[in-house]
Specification:
Elements: H1 4-12, H2 15-21, E1 23-26, H3 45-53, E2 59-61, H4 66-79, E3 87-90, H5 103-107, H6 112-128, E4 133-134, H7 158-173, E5 188-190, H8 209-216, H9 218-225, E6 230-233, E7 237-238, E8 241-242, H10 247-257, E9 263-265, H11 273-277, H12 283-293, E10 298-299, H13 303-313, H14 319-335, H15 348-353, H16 358-371, E11 373-377, E12 391-394, H17 420-427, E13 434-437, H18 449-458, E14 462-468, H19 487-497, E15 503-508, H20 517-520, E16 524-527, H21 535-543, E17 557-558, E18 595-597, E19 608-610, E20 614-615, E21 619-620, E22 626-634, E23 640-650, E24 661-670, E25 675-682, E26 689-690, E27 696-697, E28 701-708, E29 717-721
Parallel strand pairs: 1-2, 1-10, 2-3, 3-4, 5-6, 6-9, 12-13, 12-14, 14-15, 15-16, 21-29
Antiparallel strand pairs: 7-8, 11-16, 17-18, 19-22, 20-22, 22-25, 23-24, 23-28, 26-27, 28-29
Helix pairs in contact: 2-13, 6-7, 6-16, 7-9, 12-13, 16-21, 17-21, 18-19
Bound molecules: beta-D-glucopyranose.
Length: 733
């Protein structure tokens, strides 16, 4: 039962006013980034304000600005019949004015606490700029790197994805939802959006229910457990039923199984797209199907406004269902204190104060360097020296300012973006030691570019080659078939490598890439994703050794594009590839069944040695907890951080199990020579999965366990999960 305030409002609302609360429309009063979505149901500022006045708008999205936000709210509160405030939403994904690394990059830190801090900083800036509600975090698991929106999530792993989903929700929302700097979170896209066939955006998803349950749904549950009160549907169909009209998903699972009390918002025009899917015959049919499946709010199509009143009138939609959806929307508004203070987060003075917060730059720099994955460092070519070494910074990203922020950054303060060149110059003792040559454009050769780059490489002691994907290659509707560098960049790399000057490749990328030729064979390779505002400084910190890289791959780097989908936790085949036997094995004609760099991989400037993991018991009782302890030692000469990873493998089960699954991870810092005892605990819940009958639970039997540095490393130890005393084998949770 909602509050008496909400019940009394509901009692006074007309059907049109109720339906009005379910409408989400582009904020044309303060339009900031209308171009991020296709045009649909276009209107202008006056029309939007008139709709607000008539009580026909629940929420506006993707506008910014406190002053104009107050004006919108004034119309809602003072000029609409019932004075219900609107809730102002936006896509604030990885930063507002200050841009933090793309979520995939930040996930590489393996530090959910870092994501919590950057989400908090984002919330402070976004709420100061007149935004109450963000359409983030994206918690889609992305096992196919052709898909462009992997950049917005936390990669291919479930446990990592859950940890980051929860951390981001906590960070956005803060401790008190009513606080002026609390930003409502919206995990998206519900569900299995990352599982689109062939990695093609918006494509069909044909998926085993068990995989849906065990891989794609858990990050949503983690986000809800962390307090998220809304969720956005996805565009794809799941086994033939569009997610946005999927009653099993939006009602049976979400409400029935999980008791989710919050709001289900459609993705942009997703109800309208039911017609194109061939799942609804017309707008009325689409409205009925989406609404009855469990969609509460309709974004931009106007379908609910146009058709729900008649559907209620004709008895095709029960008024109780309408009331329930409206109640949830009003509760969301109440939860953030909008009824008590409709002008919360609409304070121009606070907006001015928050327009530049130096502490957020410091955080962005730390987040940037903590997101960089050092894949390779032959001959310890890194770190570079700040003096006495001639450096050629080559490549189309050397001076670039247009590809710093990464996808889905609508509000970044571009004037603060630090280029690679600026970052390196700021770090160097003598700037004369730095030569900069673009060498080529992002996608096309430059006249004389390669010659100039080769000359610079010859004159240098080391080349830093900044290559990668243009930022528009990742994000929404940016699927690729070949996840490789543009040909012009590859040609530049080949020419520069031929000089034999030691080569450090800096990759900028929104997904895992297939690296070839001179790029793959460079002495050092660092994955820098899109690092945001402090790109140049974050990269310089790593290049010059002020920070020993500590990030690890949240996605497997393949040997070739054609391996996709390639993810470390794939089910076992009946003919696994063996080192001594290649024929009639699960592999490709051209390449083995292996990544170039596995999930979890990453180097620093020191080395770590792992002792043999020691489980507290070899026989884990059904209700018991196992503790596994491993000694990790910093065997190098400098301090560093290591991501200690725990994987398990279920040897025999009623459903073919993954070769390995990450169950826990921890980043530790060790001085040279220092050792730490790292202990993890594990119980049967961590071993659970959905069996062929759809039941969830662990199965007794033998398990392998690794505590190691990446998804391919380490020696396994074994333990046995014992059945429960009374029913023996096969008892389920
Ligand atoms: C995207 C969503 C986004 C929405 C609103 C859609 O195209 O899929 O992630 O929140 O637009 O901008």
């Amino acid at each position: 039962m909602a509050s008496s305030r909400i019940e009394s409002l509901l009692a006074r609302m007309t059907v049109e006013e109720k339906v009005g609360q379910l409408g989400v429309f582009a904020d044309m009063v303060r339009p900031f980034a209308p171009e991020v979505n296709p045009e649909a149901n276009v209107s202008n500022a006056e029309q939007v304000l008139q709709q607000v006045r008539e009580g026909r708008v629940g929420s506006l999205f993707n506008g910014v600005g406190a002053e104009l936000g107050r004006q919108i709210q004034r119309v809602a509160v003072e000029e609409s019949r019932l004075g219900i405030p609107v809730i102002l939403a936006a896509d604030v994904i990885h930063g507002m004015r200050t841009v933090f690394p793309i979520p995939l990059g930040e996930a590489a830190s393996f530090e959910p606490e870092l994501a919590e801090r950057t989400a908090r900083a984002t919330a402070v800036e976004a709420t100061a700029a007149g935004i109450h509600w963000t359409y983030a975090p994206a918690v889609d698991i992305a096992r196919d790197q052709r898909w462009g929106r992997g950049a917005e999530g936390a990669g291919e792993d479930v446990v990592l994805g859950c940890a980051f989903a929860a951390a981001r929700v906590r960070g956005f929302q803060g401790g008190d939802l009513r606080a002026a700097d609390a930003l409502l979170a919206t995990p998206k896209h519900f569900a299995a959006y990352g599982a689109v066939a062939a990695g093609m955006e918006y494509n069909t998803v044909d998926i085993a229910p068990q995989t849906l349950r065990d891989v794609h749904l858990p990050p949503f549950q983690a986000a809800f457990a962390a307090g998220a009160l809304s969720v956005m549907t996805s565009f794809n169909d799941i086994n033939g039923v569009p997610a946005s009209a999927n009653r099993e998903l939006l009602t049976e699972i979400l409400r029935g199984e999980w008791n989710f009390p919050g709001v289900v918002i459609s993705d942009y025009t997703a109800d309208m797209e039911l017609i194109a899917h061939g799942y609804a015959s017309d707008a009325r049919d689409a409205t009925r199907k989406a609404f009855l499946a469990g969609m509460d709010m309709s974004m931009q199509s106007g379908f609910f406004a146009d058709h729900l009143p008649a559907l209620v009138e004709d008895g095709e939609v029960p008024v109780e269902a309408l009331d329930a959806a409206v109640r949830r929307v009003l509760e969301l508004k109440e939860a953030i204190g909008l009824f008590d203070d409709p002008y919360r987060s609409l304070d121009p003075a606070r907006e001015a104060d928050a327009s530049y917060l130096p502490a957020h730059d410091a955080l962005a720099r730390d987040a940037a360097r903590r997101s960089i994955v050092l894949l390779k460092n032959e001959g310890a070519v890194l770190p570079l020296r700040k003096a006495g070494q001639r450096i050629a910074l080559v490549g189309p990203f050397a001076r670039d300012r247009e590809n710093i922020e990464g996808c889905w950054t609508l509000f970044g303060d571009k004037s603060r973006y630090v280029t690679l060149e600026a970052g390196l110059r700021a770090a160097l003792a003598d700037e004369a030691l730095l030569a900069v040559e673009p060498g080529c454009g992002l996608e096309e050769p430059l006249d004389g570019g390669i010659d100039a780059a080769v000359a610079a490489a010859r004159a240098a002691d080391v080349v830093v080659l900044a290559l990668g994907e243009p930022q528009r290659y990742s994000g929404e509707a940016q699927s690729r078939t070949e996840i490789v560098l543009p040909a012009a960049q590859q040609a530049l790399a080949e020419a520069v490598a031929a000089t034999d000057t030691p080569l450090v490749v800096l990759l900028r990328n929104g997904r895992a890439l297939a690296l070839h030729g001179a790029v793959r064979d460079a002495q050092a390779i660092a994955v820098t994703w899109f690092l945001g505002t402090q790109t140049g400084h974050g990269v310089a910190d790593v290049l010059f050794g002020d920070y020993s890289p500590s990030a690890r791959l949240p996605v497997s780097f393949p040997l070739a594009s054609g391996q996709q989908p390639l993810f470390y936790n794939h089910p076992r085949t009946g003919r696994p590839e063996l080192p001594e036997m290649k024929e009639f094995k699960a592999r490709w004609r051209e390449i083995p069944d292996a990544p170039l760099y596995p999930f979890g991989h990453g180097l620093g400037y020191t080395t770590f040695e792992y002792g043999v993991p020691s489980p507290s018991t070899g026989r884990l009782g059904w209700d018991e907890t196992l503790t596994v302890t491993t000694t990790v030692t910093n065997t190098g000469a400098v301090a560093g951080e290591e991501v200690v990873q725990l994987y398990v493998h279920d040897r025999v089960a009623s459903r073919v199990r993954p070769v390995r699954e990450l169950k826990a991870f921890r980043k530790i810092a060790l001085q040279p020579g220092e050792s730490a005892q790292v202990a993890f605990t594990l119980d049967r819940h961590a071993l659970a999965f959905t069996n062929p009958r759809g039941e969830y639970g662990a199965e007794p039997g033998l398990f392998d366990l690794w505590v190691c540095a990446d998804a391919l490393a380490g020696e396994a130890v074994q333990f046995e999960l014992l059945g429960s005393g009374d029913s023996g084998l096969g008892i389920r949770d």
